[in-house]
Each structure stands twice: as C-alpha cells, then as structure tokens.
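User: Please fill in residues for this 83-position structure.
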C-alpha cells in the first residue's frame, strides 16, 4: 500500500522531496493522478504517510492532503486520509 502527498504549490513538493531524501526516506515524485482533484500537479508517493508528514511538519513544510492508493483492477482508487 502506498500513500500520495499533495502540496499547494510545486515549490512545496520539491522542497518536501529534498527534505525526505536527505533524511534517508524513500520517496517517489509523480504527476498528480487524475483521480485526485487538488494540489499543484506534482505529488509524492511514500510508504508511511505518518512518518513522512511528521518529518515535513518538523521542517515547516505543509502537506495539503494525503491519499491512500488502492489498486482495483483496472484502475487505482485514491481515498483521502483524514487527520
């Protein structure tokens, strides 16, 4: 299972990626999936959204939303994680 982090702007997404990578956290950069109707167009894929979000908050980086990616044939479904 993976999680998608969205950001208000591209700068936030790029800064978040850099911060997570410097901390040794595995992160993937991807275009915002069409199933998500928010954000700047760039999203980050992470395995553990709680750890990633906590690390980003420590560095004053705001995550706009978190989505859980669930693979349902033939499409991936994205559900917003609240809280």
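Assistant: Residues filled in for all 83 positions:
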């Amino acid at each position: 299972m993976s999680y998608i982090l969205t950001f208000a702007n591209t700068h936030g997404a790029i800064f978040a990626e850099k911060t997570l990578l410097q901390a040794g956290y595995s992160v993937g950069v991807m275009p915002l999936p069409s199933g998500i109707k928010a954000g700047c167009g760039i999203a980050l894929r992470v395995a553990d959204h709680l750890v990633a979000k906590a690390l980003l908050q420590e560095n004053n980086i705001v995550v706009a939303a978190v989505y859980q990616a669930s693979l349902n044939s033939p499409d991936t479904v994205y559900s917003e994680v609240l809280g």
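For context: The two ends are 18 Å apart (CA to CA).
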